[in-house]
């Protein structure tokens, strides 16, 4: 009887890691989100500023695809709260502050000299 409960627990963990369908969808989305900026840059389809925006937007979407389809951020294990989501949001906030602060300093460092 105890052996049966261990087997079902192992099955739940294997099922929680995602299905082949979700991996294929994530893989295809990743390829598409990689090809889009590559085509825009290689064919000089846009001016530099819009090209940078395309790269940034597809990079953010690629990040989201990686988190949800491969790292399973939205899944919870048992009755545990989603600490990994809260830690991720906190980490992203810190990165946003550091990057935006660095850009701000680099942009306005030479003003007034």
Automatic annotation (TrEMBL):
Record-level Gene Ontology MF annotations: cytochrome bo3 ubiquinol oxidase activity; proton transmembrane transporter activity
Q: Which residues cross the membrane?
A: 23-46, 52-73, 85-106
Ranges in a coiled coil: none
Q: Name one GO biological process term.
A: aerobic electron transport chain
Question: A single Pfam family, by name?
Answer: COX4_pro
What is the first-listed, main subcellular location in coarse terms? membrane
Q: In which compartments does the protein localize?
A: Cell membrane
Keyword list (alphabetical) reads: Cell membrane, Electron transport, Membrane, Oxidoreductase, Transmembrane, Transmembrane helix, Transport
Q: How does it sit in the membrane?
A: Multi-pass membrane protein
What does the entry list under GO cellular component? cytochrome o ubiquinol oxidase complex; plasma membrane
Classification via InterPro entries: Cyt_c_oxidase_su4_prok, Cyt_o_ubiqinol_oxidase_su4, Cytochrome_c_oxidase_bac_sub4
Lineage top rank: taxon: Bacteria
PANTHER family hit by this protein? CYTOCHROME BO(3) UBIQUINOL OXIDASE SUBUNIT 4
Instruction: Please give the family membership noted in the entry.
Output: Belongs to the cytochrome c oxidase bacterial subunit 4 family.
Per its record, how is this protein called by name? Cytochrome o ubiquinol oxidase subunit IV
From which lineage does this chain's organism come? Bacteria, Bacillati, Bacillota, Bacilli, Bacillales
């Amino acid at each position: 009887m105890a052996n049966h409960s261990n087997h079902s627990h192992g099955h739940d963990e294997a099922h929680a890691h995602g299905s082949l369908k979700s991996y294929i969808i994530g893989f295809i989305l990743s390829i598409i989100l990689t090809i889009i900026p590559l085509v825009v840059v290689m064919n000089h389809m846009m001016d530099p500023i819009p090209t940078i925006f395309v790269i940034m937007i597809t990079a953010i979407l690629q990040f989201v695809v990686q988190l949800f389809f491969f790292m399973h951020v939205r899944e919870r294990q048992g009755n545990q709260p989603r600490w990994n989501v809260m830690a991720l949001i906190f980490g992203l906030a810190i990165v946003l502050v550091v990057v935006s602060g660095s850009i701000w300093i680099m942009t306005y460092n030479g003003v007034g000299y």
